[in-house]
Design a protein that fits this description.
The complex is a heterodimer of chains A (246) and B (199).
Chain A (H helix, E strand, L loop, with lengths): L12 E10 L4 E7 L11 E7 L5 E7 L9 E5 L7 H7 L5 E8 L13 E6 L3 H13 L6 E7 L8 H5 L5 E7 L16 H7 L8 E7 H13 L7 E6 L5
Parallel strand pairs in A: 7-8, 7-10, 8-9, 10-11
Antiparallel strand pairs in A: 1-2, 1-6, 2-5, 3-4, 3-6
Chain B lengths: L24 E2 L20 E5 L5 E4 H5 L4 E8 L4 E12 H5 L8 E6 L4 E5 L9 E6 L2 E2 L9 E3 L12 E7 L6 H4 L18
Parallel strand pairs in B: 1-5, 2-11
Antiparallel strand pairs in B: 2-3, 4-5, 5-8, 6-7, 6-11, 8-9, 8-10
């Protein structure tokens, strides 16, 4: 078993919003300035805590969107009946303060020593920790070959689109648009299925390492497709988020 | 002193005063969190075993189903901050399973299909506090929620309620399990917000 990812006790730190950038109509990336940030690994997450004027607090977890060595950023999707995500995506401005603690999690991470080839499978905003892995790979000059299969409802829902349109050498990005496709779209236009996995995934014989992140139904599906395709379960790391309405 | 998040009001919890631990929110869905693919074990291959006592104990699925069961209504709390109230489970109490197991172990490591483990004090498994549950809400427990059977220890964070559980290893020392090795709390009391190591 790998060592612990959390050093000592995690304490809440005050972070200041350094910048905000809209990724899509419902998704925003928030870059944070954290004075004593101890650093993080690609794929880890943080706890975010908001405090109302009367002292009421709400906490949520968010995947870190930035690579190790970059300022901490999170990418948040607005859930219409959510308590925290509408605030983060609509109200929060540069200079505002919030609290965070972390980094948290040591299993759904990729370090250069983990090698590859890498198969990254993203459903919707599940692309966030995978983007941290891609950026980390690029920043450290790794040549590990990567395929990212990214399922979105429509082209307008693709997060990090311009960045993913210019992948670094050795990275292939394959989109599937499940609900709406632009005119002339020649890519996949359905939910990820076993056939798509067979066309996109590295052969099991190459010893690939897979990371799947997205809604439960997406991750359940792709993980069992990969097992059927011959991937050992221990080479498939998953992170799921339920549609909790939060 | 926490800084004020300008413009944040939040939603106050009024639905269940006193039942939701600090930092948690109530959900009506049943989210799924697992580190890897969902294992699918055929019931004919399923056994539950307890090792580390004077003699090992082992039940097949059929034998297990013949044990006395309980149906309990409990609140569950996930370390990722959702809580779900009044969940209904049917299973076999650990009191029943540990009856007749002679041991002086203070700790147990729950082991699951897929290699997942989690550690618990035996004192938290006995006294009507823990079950091996195979029904949820009147139906067989679905694989993504830990079926055919999972541990149910509702007074601790839900990662302690190991999915796909296949046995307990009794031991005299506390040995961290899967998430505990990745920095999560060794005990995991939601009312003391013991999410991570040192909390």
């Amino acid at each position: 078993m790998a060592g612990t990812a959390v050093r000592g006790r995690l304490t809440w730190e005050t972070a200041t919003v350094a910048s905000v950038a809209d990724e899509t109509a419902r998704v925003r990336t928030i870059s944070l300035s954290v004075p004593d940030w101890a650093g993080h690994r690609a794929g880890q997450h943080i706890d975010v805590r908001l405090t109302a004027e009367d002292g009421y607090q709400a906490e949520r977890e968010y995947s870190i969107a930035s690579a190790p060595g970059e300022p901490v950023s999170i990418t948040v999707e607005r859930l219409e009946d959510g308590e925290v995500s509408p605030y983060l995506t609509e109200e929060l401005r540069v200079g505002d303060e919030l609290e965070l603690r972390g980094p948290v999690g040591g299993y759904f991470v990729w370090d250069v020593a983990d090698g590859g080839p890498l198969l990254l499978l993203a459903g919707g905003s599940g692309v966030v920790p995978l983007r941290a892995i891609l950026r980390h790979r690029e920043r450290v000059g790794s040549t590990v070959p990567v395929r990212l299969l990214y399922s979105s409802r429509s082209l307008a829902d693709v997060i990090y689109r311009s960045e993913l349109d210019q992948p670094s050498e050795g990275v292939t990005v394959i989109h599937t648009l499940t609900r709406q496709q632009p005119p002339g779209w020649t890519g996949y236009a359905r939910r990820v299925d076993q056939q798509m996995i067979a066309e996109v995934a590295w052969p099991a014989a190459d010893g690939p390492l897979a990371y799947a992140c997205g809604p439960t139904s997406f991750v359940e599906g792709v993980a069992s497709d990969l097992v059927a395709f011959g991937y050992p379960p221990r080479r498939i790391r998953t992170e799921r988020f339920g549609a909790t309405g939060q | 002193m926490s800084p004020i998040s300008r413009g944040f009001r939040g939603r106050r919890r009024e639905d269940a005063p006193g039942r939701v631990p600090p930092g948690q929110y109530v959900t009506r869905d049943f989210p799924v969190l697992s580190a890897g693919p969902t294992p699918h074990t055929a019931l004919g291959d399923w056994t539950f075993s307890i090792d580390g006592g004077s003699s090992p104990k082992r039940w097949t699925w059929q034998e297990f189903q013949a044990l006395p069961t309980e149906t309990v209504t409990v609140d569950i709390h996930c370390v990722t901050r959702w809580s779900k109230l009044d969940t209904v489970w049917t299973g076999v109490s650990l009191d029943v399973l540990l009856e007749g197991v002679e041991h002086d172990a203070a700790y147990a490591l729950a082991v699951s299909d897929g290699g997942y483990t989690t550690n618990l004090p035996v004192a938290d498994l006995t006294g009507g506090q823990a079950w091996v549950a195979f029904n949820y809400d009147g139906s067989p427990l679905r694989p993504e929620h830990g079926g055919p059977a999972r541990l149910l220890v509702p007074h601790l964070y839900f990662w302690k309620s190991a999915k796909w559980v296949r046995g307990l290893r009794l031991r005299d020392h506390d040995e961290p399990g899967f998430w505990e090795n990745y920095g999560y709390n060794i005990y995991g009391d939601p009312w003391r917000e013991q999410r991570y190591a040192g909390d």
